[in-house]
Design brief:
371 residues; alpha+beta; five-stranded mixed beta sheet; four-stranded antiparallel beta sheet; 7 helices; elongated; disordered N terminus
Length: 371
C-alpha cells in the first residue's frame, strides 16, 4: 500500500514537471529554444521539489555566447591599426591594400610672350603701315582689326610677317585664324626680318608656333606686355659718314644714318628737322636696306667739333661731337674792279650758293625709296 502511494506521488511530480515545462515553451516571453535572444526569462524544472526562475545560460555542449566587442561589433574582434598577420602567413607577404590612383589635375599652361612696345609710331599721315599695324597688334584683342588692315596680297616682306602673326594670334585664342597660314608666313620670313619691330614680331610668331606644336589643341588668352618691358626699338643716330676721316668742310655732303626707326621712314619727309651744330639744314632721306640715311650739306660755320640732331614729332635723337668741321680751302682771287656789287667775300667764308641737284631742299621727297 505504501509502495503504491509512493508511485502515485512520483507520477504526480513527473506530470507536474512536464506541465510546467510545456507552459514555459508556449509562453510569450520571446525566448528561443537555445536560450539566446530575447530578454525573457526561461523557466525550467529543477530536481528539487519546488519551482524557481533561472537566468538564461548556455545549454550543455553549446558554443560559448558571442559577446559584443568594445567597438560595438558582434562577432570578430575590431580591427584597429595594422591588420594582424594570419597564422602561418609570412609577414612580408600579406596583401597590401590598394590605394586610389591619383586624379590628374589640369596642367596650367604658360601663356606665350607677346609683343614688346615699339615705341608706338606717330603715324602722322594716318595711313596703315607695318610700324603702326605692329602697334595695333600689341593689344591681343585687336588682332582681327589688324589683320583687316594688312593687304591681302602683301608685296612687302614685313606685311607678310604681320599677317602670319595676326592670324596666329586669332588661332591661339580660339577665335579663328589659320595655323597653316602662320607657318607659311613665318617660313617665308626666315632671316628676312631687318627692322626692330620686324625682328620682335618674328620672334613672337615663332613662340606661338612652338606653343602650338607642344599643345596642339590648347587655346590661351594672350596678355599685353607690361609697359615696363624693354622696347623693341632703340631709336638713335647710328653714325655720321664723312668719308672716313671724321672731318668735313662747309659745303660737303655727309650722311646721317638712323638705326631702329620705329615709324614709317616716309613720314620724316614732312615732319623731320635736322640740325648740325645747332643750325637747321636741308636734307634728303634715302634708304640703305631698311635703314634711313639722311644726306645733308654741311653749313658754313666755325671750325671745330659739332653735334648732329634729328627731331621728329617731339622726339629728338642726337650724337655729340659727331664730326669736326674744318676750315675751307680759300684761294684769294685778285679783284677785277670796284663798285657797289663787286665787294669781295669775307676771308675764310665761301658763298653757299644753290644746293647741288641731288639736294633739292629740306623736305623734298626726291631720292626717297620706300620698300
Amino acid at each position: 500500500m505504501a509502495v503504491s502511494l509512493g508511485m502515485r506521488v512520483s507520477g504526480l511530480l513527473v506530470v507536474g514537471a512536464v506541465a510546467v515545462a510545456a507552459a514555459a515553451f508556449t509562453s510569450d516571453g520571446g525566448g528561443s529554444a537555445d536560450g539566446r535572444g530575447g530578454g525573457g526569462t526561461v523557466v525550467t524544472a529543477g530536481p528539487s521539489d519546488g519551482v524557481r526562475s533561472l537566468l538564461p545560460g548556455p545549454s550543455v555542449g553549446s558554443a560559448p555566447p558571442v559577446r559584443p566587442s568594445p567597438d560595438g561589433h558582434i562577432g570578430a574582434p575590431a580591427v584597429i591599426g595594422t591588420p594582424r598577420t594570419s597564422q602561418g602567413e609570412p609577414p612580408g607577404e600579406r596583401p597590401t591594400p590598394s590605394s586610389p590612383s591619383p586624379t590628374m589635375s589640369q596642367k596650367l599652361l604658360e601663356v606665350p610672350a607677346w609683343l614688346p612696345p615699339g615705341p608706338d609710331s606717330p603715324n602722322t599721315d594716318g595711313t596703315p603701315d607695318p610700324s603702326s599695324v605692329y602697334d595695333l597688334l600689341r593689344t591681343p584683342t585687336e588682332c582681327r582689326n589688324a589683320l583687316s588692315a594688312i593687304p591681302s596680297t602683301p608685296a612687302d616682306a614685313e606685311w607678310t610677317l604681320l599677317r602670319g602673326l595676326a592670324t596666329a594670334c586669332l588661332a591661339v585664342q580660339g577665335e579663328g585664324g589659320s595655323w597653316q597660314q602662320a607657318v607659311r608666313d613665318h617660313a617665308a620670313m626666315a632671316d628676312r626680318a631687318d627692322t626692330c619691330k620686324g625682328r620682335a614680331a618674328y620672334a613672337v610668331l615663332g613662340g606661338l608656333l612652338d606653343f602650338h606644336r607642344r599643345h596642339p589643341g590648347a587655346t590661351v588668352r594672350l596678355k599685353p606686355t607690361s609697359s615696363g618691358t624693354t622696347a623693341a626699338c632703340g631709336y638713335r643716330i647710328a653714325g655720321v659718314d664723312t668719308g672716313g676721316d671724321g672731318q668735313a668742310r662747309p659745303g660737303e655732303t655727309i650722311g646721317i644714318e638712323l638705326a631702329d626707326v620705329y615709324f614709317d621712314p616716309a613720314e620724316l619727309v614732312r615732319d623731320g628737322v635736322v640740325s648740325i651744330g645747332g643750325q637747321e639744314v636741308p636734307w634728303v632721306p634715302t634708304l640703305v636696306g631698311r635703314r634711313p640715311v639722311l644726306s645733308v650739306v654741311v653749313p658754313v660755320m666755325e671750325p671745330g667739333p659739332v653735334d648732329v640732331a634729328l627731331r621728329y614729332t617731339g622726339t629728338e635723337v642726337h650724337m655729340p661731337t659727331a664730326f669736326t668741321v674744318t676750315a675751307p680751302d680759300v684761294v684769294q682771287e685778285p679783284s677785277t674792279g670796284t663798285g657797289p656789287n663787286t665787294s669781295p667775300a669775307p676771308q675764310g667764308v665761301l658763298p653757299l650758293g644753290p644746293l647741288p641737284a641731288h639736294h633739292p631742299g629740306p623736305h623734298a621727297p626726291a631720292g626717297l625709296r620706300i620698300p
